[in-house]
Amino acid sequence: MSTQDLVPSPVGPVDVEQAEAALVERYPRLVRIAYLVLPPALGRNRRVLTAHALVQRSLPRRRVPGPAVPGPRRAEDAVDPGYAYVRGEVLRQALLAGLPLRRLALPRRAQLPPLLPHVWGLRLFPRVGGADELALDQRLSRLSGPGRAAYVLRGLERQGDPEVLRVLAAAGVEDPRAALAEADALDGADGGADPGAGPEGAAPPAPGTAGGDGPHLGGAALLESDEFDPCALQARPTDLMRRRQHARAALVAVVALVVCGTLLGLPGDGWGRNGAAAPSYARNPAAEAALDPGAVKRVDPAVWPAATRRDFSVWPARGGLTGDSALVRRALAVWARPGESVRSSATPGTPVGPPMGPPQLLFAGRVDAMRVVLFHDGLRAVRYAEPAEGTAGAALDFARTDAADAVGAAALVVSRAAGNVRYVTAPWVRETAVRDLLAPAKEPRALARDADGVTDPVPTPARSGGCTRWNTLQVRDGEGVRLLTDLGELAPARLLWGPPASPVDATGAEARGAWARTACQLAVVRAHGVRSVSAWSFARQPLPEGAGRATWVCTRAETWRGTGSRVLAQFLVPSPGVPAALAARSEGSPACGARDPRVLAGVLWRAPGGGWFVLAAGGGDFTSLETSGGVKGRSDGPLLAVRATAGARADLDGTLRDGTRMGALR
Predict the structure, then answer these.
(1) Where are the alpha helices (DSSP H) in 156-270?
(2) pLDDT tens for residues 235-290?
(3) Contact 560, 347 (CB under 8 A)
C-alpha cells in the first residue's frame, strides 16, 4: 500500500495543514521514531537518511477522514490528530522498509534507498553513546520490526498497552500482541527498572502524550539519548580512493555527452516556418485550419460600441504586428505543439491543448524587446512571446477566462520585465491609474497608454520580495471605477468589498482602509487562477481590558474554474497601522461566499496588560459560541472572549439559530 493511500485516522479527521504543522513541530521526535524502528542492518548512514525521507513522505495529499464511530481511548493516551496520523505513517513505512526483498515481487518505495535527502561525499551518523546505549541497540537489533515499534511506542511515546496495540494494528502489523510480547521480553532483560523514570534532567514526555498503564521498559530513558538522535549528526568522508575513480569515469562520460550534443544541436538559420514548435505529428484538416493565420478571427474596431455584451469576443485586433502572418503562424504552431525550449505556464484548471478552431486575435505587437501575440478561443486567453532579436526564449502562457464580463475582460498582462508589468486594456476602458493598496489616503497616479491600449510599466507586487507596496490597476469604464490586481497570471483579479450577497468594487474609503491592512495576505492566492477577491467585515468586537474594538474580516478568492476557492479569516486590532493577522484559512470551503455567507473564526490575543485571551467571532445567524480543549468557555451571541494562557490551543464551535452546530474555519 502506498503512503498516499489514505485510511481513516483512529483519532479523527486530519487536514493537510494540520498534519504539516504537526510534522514541522515534532520533526525531531518523528525522525527518532523512524530511526529506532528501522532495521540496524541498514547501517547508520542509510538509517539516518531513510528516517528523514520516511518522515518527509508522510504528509497526506488530501484531508484524511475519521472513523464513523471512534474507538474508546483513555484521556492520557490522547494525542493531536495530525501528529497521530503522521506518526502512524512513519511507523508503517519504517516497518515496510524492514521487510526482506523478494525475487519476484516489486519492491516497496520504503524498501529502496531514498532519493531525497541525499548526501554526496559524506557519511552521517548520530553521536556515539555509552555502554548502556550500545547494549540497548544490540538488544533492539534482535527484535523484529513490530517488536521495535512496540518498544518505542511504550518507551519513547509513553503509550499504554491498549494504545500500542491500536497503533500497531493501524500501521499494518499482522500480530500486534506478538510484537508487544517481544517488547515485554526485552523489558524483562533490562532488569525491571523503574518504568517511568528517566535520567536526571531528562525531558518530560512530548506534548499530547502521557504515561500508559502497561509495564514500561527499563531502557526507555536511553531512547532519548544522542545515540538515537538522527538530527544531531557527525560526518566522516566516504572512501576517497573509490570516489576519485568514480570522478574520472564521470568526467569522461560528460565529455562524450557534450561532444554528442554539440554535433546534434548545431544552430540553424533562425526562426523556421513554425518557430519553436515541435514537429507536426498529424495531417488533420480541422487542426490545420485552426493553425492557419489567414483563418484567425479579427474583430473590427467598430463592433464593440454596438455590441449587446462586452467581453473578449468584441476586442478588436490591435498592435503593430497584426499583419505579420509569419509571427501569427509561429504563435499558432507553438500553441499547438510547444517544443522543449518553450517556457510554458498555465493557471490551475486551464487546459493547454491546441485551439478547437481558429482563435480570435486580440493583440500582436512589440513590447519590451519582445514580439507578443494574444489570442482568445472562448475558453482561454493565450499569450505567445518571442524575443525581437534572436531565436531563443519563446514563452507560452494560458489563462482560463470563460464567462468573462466587461470587468473581467478589462485588461490582460501583455509583458513582464525587470519586475514590472504592462497591461493591454479593453477598448471601453476610458482611464487607467495606479493605486497603492497600502496607502489608502494617497491619490492614484495616472497611468499612460499608447494607441493600442498598452500601459506604461507598473511595478508588480507579484514579483516584489517584501510587502512595502501593493500596486493595483485602477480602470474607469462607462459604468464606474474598478480595481484590478496582478497575482502573477495573465488575467488580473478584481478586488471587491462588502457582504457576499452584494459586493461592490473596492474603491470606497472604507474598502481602501480595510484592504490597506489585508492586502499583503493576497500573496497566498498568487498563481491560483483567481478571478476576483472579495473582502467583508463580518464582525466588530470589543476587546478585553478596554483595549478598543477589533474588526474581523473575511477574504474570499474565487477562481475562474469555479473550484478551489480560498477563504481567509483575518483579525484587525484597533491600531490602523498594524497589518491584519491571519486567523484561519481554508480551501474549497463555501464559507464567506454567496451560497453560505456564514463564517466563524478565533484567535489567541495578548492584551496590552499582558493577559492572554481567546477571541472569536461569527458572521451570520450564530446564537452562541463555545470553546473546548485547552480553553473552555461559552458565550451567548456571535462574539466570545475567554481568558487563556500563552500558547493555548482550543476547539471553537458555534450554534446557529436553527440549532445546527458549525465548526470554525481552519
Answers:
(1) 161-170, 176-189, 240-264
(2) 777 666 676 676 777 788 888 888 777 666 544 444 556 666 655 545 567 667 77
(3) yes
**Sole residue written with cell 500601459:** 455
Enumerate residues 6+ apart whose C-beta is below 8 A from 494: 407, 408, 482, 483, 484, 505, 531, 532, 533
**DSSP 8-state secondary structure symbol assigned to residue 589:** -
Q: How far apart are CA 413 and CA 599, in angstroms?
A: 34
- Residue 406 cell numbers, joined: 466587461
Q: How far apart are CA 231 and CA 325, in angstroms?
A: 61
C-alpha torsion 124→130→132→135, nearest 10: 50
Q: Which of 335, 339, 350 is nearest to 396 (CA)?
A: 335
| Element holding 27 (H helix, E strand) | helix 27-37
Asked whether 161 and 216 are in contact (CB, 8 A), the reply is: no
Cα angle 658, 660, 664 (rounded to 5 degrees) comes to 130
Phi-psi domain of 201 (left: phi exceeds 0; alpha: psi -120 through 50; beta: other): left
Grid look-up 452562541 returns 624
Please list, residue by residue across 218-237, b when 16 or more beta carbons sit within 10 angstroms of its beta carbon and e when fewer do.
bbbbbbbbebbbbeebeeee
Contact (Cβ atoms closer than 8 angstroms) between residue 665 and residue 14: no
Q: Running DSSP on this structure, what letter comes out for residue 290?
A: H
Q: Where are the alpha helices (DSSP H) in 156-199?
A: 161-170, 176-189
| Angle 48-53-57 from CA coordinates, rounded to 5° | 155
Q: What is the pLDDT of residue 73?
A: 52
Going through 543-575 in order, the beta strands assigned E by DSSP cover: 549-559, 566-572
Residues with Cβ < 8 Å from 220, sequence gap 6 or more?
A: 154, 155, 156, 195, 198
- Residue 145 backbone dihedrals phi, psi, to 5 degrees: -60, -50
Residue spans of beta strands (DSSP E) within 313-368: 343-346, 360-367
Q: State pLDDT tens for residues 528-586.
A: 999 999 999 999 999 999 999 999 999 999 999 999 999 999 999 999 889 999 999 99
The full length of the chain comes to: 666
Report which of residues 197 and 392 the model is more confident about: 392
Angle in degrees, 0-180, between the axes of helices 145-155 and 81-97, rounded to the nearest 10: 150
Which residues share a beta bridge with 549?
542
User: How far, in Å, are 119, 135, 152, 224, 227 from residue 125 at the CA level?
Assistant: 12, 18, 20, 16, 9
Judge whether 433 and 446 are in contact, CB under 8 Å: yes
- pLDDT computed for residue 189 by the predictor: 61
Digit-coded pLDDT (tens) for 139-191: 888 888 888 888 888 888 888 888 889 989 888 888 889 888 888 888 766 54
Backbone angles phi, psi at 383, to 5 degrees: -115, 125
Q: Mean pLDDT for the chain?
A: 83
Alpha-carbon Rg for the chain in angstroms: 31
The 3-state secondary structure of 430-496, one letter per residue: CEEEEEECCCCCCCCEECCECCCCEECCEECCCCCCCCCCCEEEEEECCCCEEEEECCCCCCCEEEE
Place of cell 518505495: 109
